[in-house]
Design a protein that fits this description.
Helix 9 (231-247) packs antiparallel against helix 20. It is built from 21 helices and 21 strands. By secondary structure, the protein is of the alpha+beta class. The strands form seven sheets. Strands 2, 3, 4, 5 and 10 form a five-stranded mixed β-sheet that branches. It folds into two domains: 61-226, Penicillin-binding protein 2a (Domain 2), CATH 3.90.1310.10; 231-273 and 289-569, Beta-lactamase.
Length: 578
């Protein structure tokens, strides 16, 4: 073969390859031209198609809500839980606001059309507006399946309170955004709240998830909170308190039960109350936790601390005698009265008979600062440090008021103001042998250390005096609990109305401990303005203490105090005072 022939043969074999290459190039160029043409057409003439496709497949960052921690009682019973719900929302800037569209959206979501239109106009420049919140997910799915353009759904958490009214003021509640607004929900919001996460997702037209694209930050659920409250005890105390408030046609009532060893709040009830799961008709009167917030003059419930000051001074012993005849006692221009002429009585009988005259004579015999300093040492005039939002500190008279009549009034509970929690805590100090312990709404694993405020010798003298209050000779016979020794004190204080003491409005109190031989529980019961014929603490508040304390001792498996059988058998349910 010649060289020329070889060259021609090679050239002829490459010709088909070149042709195929050109064909591929032509096809690719044609495809590119077609794509560019289509893009130009969609962008310039049919851009609604791109808008629809973008709406149907949206990729965006989404907040991952964190579940709020559960609030539980000391036994693990749920008191506040978060349930996943669905909220419906729209983008007002992209929402068609024609009459037909608005009516359709209002009909499907069950929203008032006028209200919806008003909110749309108000939020016209925003990209997010809730239509309805906290719907059952199944109901929300049915609504979203109606294919309303621009209506989306997102998961949120709704707070639910299984125990309802008995714990309403104590637990409090959260707002629509899941933030603590009141009570322990507010006090422990940082602990309960958790941390939201963030993820990139692809969703369809209705906000339904197509797939996760990326997770930037995982949601961190809130911590559970174990309270000191026993929900069984809480219900029993609330029920007895509510029944008595109704029976006495009283304005309100409050009760606090403390564990003597740990300072834990076992129960804290308030009447009136409200349903925390439906707050549409909530009033400010029902909202507040009266046991922590309301301040009042405590009346004769302060006399045990006056007796403590007397014993501690060294000027008096339990056998010291006081002449209370003829049942009245003049101090300056004022006259102090007892309910009856108690004659010449000893220190213990001042407690048994609740003698205002005896308490006044003690106060006037002591240096002016003695009584205020004793009360301050027992925690009055300062917050208990419980951490409850809005806790009141109470008030002790200023030193300028430590005049004879002021000190006399102070000795039997007038001139100073306290809260029910402060009062219960001070009695718990007596019950624990003179140690004032911190108050806790959180479950404690072991007894808490406290501050010694009274010598145990004086406490051992005072508690037997308080036992006589529940005897046949005392003012709180109806506070007795069969099988247990009870020690306590009544109080009946005139209320201040429009700057002066009302002649017919009272605070009726009883504070006691059980069993008196080895106290485990202290309870304070306060009834505000009983409007029946009875108003003495021994008749109005003591029965609530008796019934509720009986159940609490049973719940805590406290063995009966057999030494109390002779006393319980001798106590008739008769008239008391104090």
């Amino acid at each position: 073969m010649t060289v020329t022939g070889a060259v021609r043969k090679g050239a002829s074999s490459k010709a088909p390859m070149a042709g195929r290459y050109k064909a591929v190039v032509v096809v690719m160029v044609a495809m590119l031209l077609a794509m560019w043409s289509r893009a130009a057409y969609l962008a310039l003439w049919d851009h609604d198609f791109l808008q629809r496709q973008g709406d149907q497949r949206s990729v965006h960052w989404e907040t991952v809500p964190a579940s709020r921690g559960i609030i539980r009682d000391r036994n693990g019973v749920p008191l506040a839980v978060s349930t996943p719900m669905t909220s419906l929302w729209i983008n007002p800037r992209r929402m068609e606001q024609g009459a037909d569209s608005l009516m359709q959206l209002a009909r499907v979501t069950g929203v008032d059309p006028a209200d919806l239109q008003h909110r749309l106009q108000k939020n016209a420049n925003r990209e997010f507006m809730y239509v309805r919140r906290d719907l059952d997910p199944a109901v929300a799915t049915q609504i979203l399946n109606e294919d309303i353009p621009g209506l989306y759904g997102q998961t949120e958490y709704m707070r639910f309170y299984p125990e309802g009214e008995p714990l309403a003021q104590l637990i409090g509640f959260t707002n629509l955004d899941g933030k603590g607004e009141d009570g322990l929900e507010l006090a422990y919001d940082p602990w309960l709240a958790g941390q939201s996460g963030k993820r990139r997702v692809m969703t369809d037209l209705h906000g339904r998830l197509i797939r996760d694209v990326a997770l930037l930050k995982a949601a961190q659920p809130g911590h559970d909170l174990y309270l000191s409250i026993d929900s069984r005890a809480q219900y029993l105390v609330y029920k007895e308190l509510a029944d008595q408030v109704m029976a006495q046609d009283a304005r309100a009532g409050m009760a606090v039960a403390l564990d003597v060893n740990t300072g834990e709040v076992l129960a804290m009830a308030n009447v009136p109350s409200y349903n925390p799961n439906n707050r549409q008709h909530l009033t400010m009167d029902a909202l507040r936790n009266r046991a922590v917030v309301d301040m009042f003059e405590p009346g004769s419930t302060m006399k045990p601390f006056t007796i403590a000051a007397a014993l501690e001074s060294g000027q008096f012993t339990p056998r010291s005698m006081f002449d209370t005849r003829p049942g009245s006692f003049r101090v300056g221009n004022h006259v102090i009265h007892d309910d009856e002429d108690n004659g010449v009585i000893d220190l213990g009988t001042i407690i048994t008979k609740s003698s205002n005259i005896g308490a006044s004579k003690i106060a006037l015999a002591l240096p002016p600062s003695t009584l205020p300093e004793m009360f301050r040492r027992l925690g009055f005039g300062a917050s208990t440090g419980s951490g409850f939002p809005g806790e009141s500190p109470g008030r002790l008279p200023a030193s300028s008021l430590w005049k004879p009549i002021g000190l006399a009034h102070m000795s039997f509970g007038y001139g100073e103001t306290v809260t029910a929690l402060q009062l219960a805590r001070a009695y718990a100090a007596l019950a624990s042998g003179g140690v004032l312990k911190p108050v806790s709404f959180i479950k404690q694993q072991m007894p808490q250390p406290g501050q010694r405020v009274l010598d145990e010798r004086w406490v051992s003298e005072i508690i037997p005096m308080l036992e006589t209050v529940v005897s046949a000779q005392g003012t709180a016979q109806q506070a007795s609990v069969p099988g247990y020794l009870i020690a306590g004190k009544t109080g009946t204080a005139h209320k201040v109305v429009n700057g002066s003491y009302s002649p017919n409005q009272y605070m009726s109190l009883f504070v006691g401990m059980a069993p008196a031989s080895h106290p485990r529980i202290v309870m304070a019961v306060v009834i505000d303005t009983p409007r029946k014929s009875q108003y003495y603490g021994g008749l109005v508040s003591a029965p609530v203490f008796s019934r509720a304390m009986s159940e609490l001792l049973r719940l805590m498996n406290v063995e009966p105090d057999h030494s109390s059988e002779h006393l319980a058998a001798s106590v008739p349910l008769a008239r008391g005072a104090g």
